[in-house]
Write a structure and sequence with these properties.
Layout (H helix, E strand, L loop, with lengths): L3 E8 L3 E3 L22 H5 L2 E7 H8 L11 E5 L10 E4 L3 H10 L4 E6 L1 H9 L5 E7 L7 E2 L11 E2 L5 E2 L5 E6 L1
Parallel strand pairs: 1-6, 1-7, 3-4, 3-6, 4-5
Antiparallel strand pairs: 2-8, 7-11, 9-11, 10-11
The protein binds NADP nicotinamide-adenine-dinucleotide phosphate (NAP).
Length: about 180
């Protein structure tokens, strides 16, 4: 069965965005390493579908660039009625059932983009298979957590072969859930 993989970056104290949703700290030029994309393009080859919470989707739309995943099947989750677009399909009800069915369909793996609320929903439902987490060497002190407070305790297993320390201080770890 295809896997659902959360591929995401977080501050060392576990936040994925500032309290207002800003991710400027993630794109600080001082972290650039020429010709290094931290495994992103290789990861993209392994997936054909994305899952996003509505807040994350709205943030992506605000990036002032074309929609970044036009060739993928993109699902956005919202509890209110939303109009599908050429790039995304909205899912309102029965999120867990919907994703269970999606996993059973043939295809490549599925990228859970985030954010913290949707991450918690999938974790609690036992639908998350792996996490590829890139820790950024910064303490934010406050912000939007990697998993919202609805998340239940869950032990992870480190996949020892798939961890990498980059020379800019990024630490990428892969967990099986
Ligand atoms: N650091 C990174 O790599 C990274 C990656 C991804 C996201 N982010 C950041 O994460 C932040 C957003 O995270 P977040 O936790 O605030 O929000 P989120 O999970 O992206 O979206 C929350 C919204 O998704 C919908 N939703 C969530 N769970 C649902 C469910 N079970 N059923 C139906 N709809 C559901 C609801 O939309 P409605 O309100 O429309 O009902 C909810 O308000 C953004 O600032 C983004 O930039 C960072």
């Amino acid at each position: 069965m295809r896997k659902i993989i959360l591929y995401i970056a977080a501050s060392t104290d576990g936040y994925i965005a500032r309290p207002d949703g800003n991710i400027d700290w993630l794109h600080d030029k001082k972290y650039n390493i020429p010709d290094e994309d931290f495994g992103y393009s290789a990861f993209l080859q392994t997936i054909d579908t994305t899952l996003m919470g509505h807040t994350t989707y709205k943030q992506v739309l605000g990036f002032d660039m074309p929609f970044p995943y036009p060739d993928l099947k993109n699902y956005v989750f919202s509890r209110s009625a939303q109009q599908d677009t050429v790039h995304v399909t909205f899912v309102r009800d029965g999120v867990v059932d919907f994703i269970e069915r999606l996993k059973e369909q043939p295809g490549k793996d599925i990228w859970l983009i985030g954010g913290g609320q949707l991450n918690a929903t999938l974790l609690n439902a036992g639908l998350l298979d792996e996490i590829i987490l890139t820790y950024i060497p910064i303490i934010l002190g406050k912000g939007i957590p990697l998993f919202s407070e609805e998340a239940e305790e869950h032990k992870l297993k480190l996949i020892p072969t798939d961890n990498k320390l980059y020379r800019n201080g990024f630490l990428q770890v892969r967990y099986s859930c």
